[in-house]
Amino acid sequence: xxxxxxxxxxxxxxxxxxxxxxxxxxxxxxxxxxxxxxxxxxxxxxxxxxxxxxxxxxxxxxxxxxxxxxxxxxxxxxxxxxxxxxxxxxxxxxxxxxxxxxxxxxxxxxxxxxxxxxxxxxxxxxxxxxxxxxxxxxxxxxxxxxxxxxxxxxxxxxxxxxxxxxxxxxxxxxxxxxxxxxxxxxxxxxxxxxxxxxxxxxxxxxxxxxxxxxxxxxxxxxxxxxxx
Amino acid sequence: xxxxxxxxxxxxxxxxxxxxxxxxxxxxxxxxxxxxxxxxxxxxxxxxxxxxxxxxxxxxxxxxxxxxxxxxxxxxxxxxxxxxxxxxxxxxxxxxxxxxxxxxxxxxxxxxxxxxxxxxxxxxxxxxxxxxxxxxxxxxxxxxxxxxxxxxxxxxxxxxxxxxxxxxxxxxxxxxxxxxxxxxxxxxxxxxxxxxxxxxxxxxxxxxxxxxxxxxxxxxxxxxxxxx
Lengths: 228, 228
Prior knowledge:
CATH class of one domain in chain A: Alpha Beta
CATH superfamily of one domain in chain A: P-loop containing nucleotide triphosphate hydrolases
Structural class of chain A: alpha/beta
Shape of chain A: globular
Number of strands of chain A: 7
Largest interface: A-B, 35 and 35 residues
Strand order of the largest sheet of chain A: 3-2-4-1-5-6-7
CATH topology of one domain in chain A: Rossmann fold
Distance between the termini of chain A: 43 Å
Oligomer: homodimer
């Protein structure tokens, strides 16, 4: 009974998500849903990505937290458009929360929408928010054993970003083990190794993102039902 | 309706937890429920604590993960008694899961029981497992802004352990800010600063634990309803 209700809630969420995805796709907006543990570096990665995208793509951020608007402040201080969602205890964002947040954004000019989920490697995996893809972060300071322990997050993502790569030598994180563990769960996972603060690996990640955003806008001009 | 059902589930859990707490208390077992983000260092802290408690107290570990028995293996390789719970997607342990795990442990000789919850700073906070206290970990590599963002975990705990203190200088973690933020949420929080790997701060933490365990056993000998 508990499980059925949970499935119903997930279905209801995913129906709203499908509507959002269609709406965002018609506007040619590439939408990314970022998942990770608290403190793996989602906010910093998105901040540094937005800085590199200045002049190249029009961006905005929807940021989810249980409480506080600390992340929205950080983004706004950097001159970026940001909307904060507080879940007030909820362990993940939902599509209706994102739907409401979209009211505060200028969608017509937008090209890439970043959604930063609540820091949690379990709950957000099952809830679609209208995104084109999930991106999961794994920091070197967290340990290489996390993909196998939290498989749903790695299974549901299209890209994995190994963050804090500059701290690798100070940890016992085995890069090879972590990548194999993640690819065992999801063989199609695109993997990046990044230090958001030091800049290592950022060019590859931003190039990949821009390529996806361009493809999304190109799809927009194709007849209905056709994708490249 | 969703909220009422969630409350009912929590109530049902907490009734089992109250029964477990009474059962464990009658045996004079100090029971600790460890909460943190994935990778904040729960397993390593517990491992190093168990090593220091050898010959001083009889210990055991119940370890929760979404999947894998990696942590149980780690504990057993160190010569410690460990029971693994896999939640198979669940984002926190529940009291009935712990009740079942207790069947595999020799409770009569036990003095301190460590319960390592699923790595998650949101969901485990509301679910009692029969513990005397919750202990929340916050690693320096995670960021100093987490108490305010995830207040329930810090509000529900009696002790906070700031881990990976040896990496402090390499991060922008503000120790003073993190402590004030946590104490604003929970002024009674006992705070430790620890490097499990390098040993810094471990003596204070283990002393405090032993003191609590001794007090628990002393309480056992007092007439019913009396505590020191």
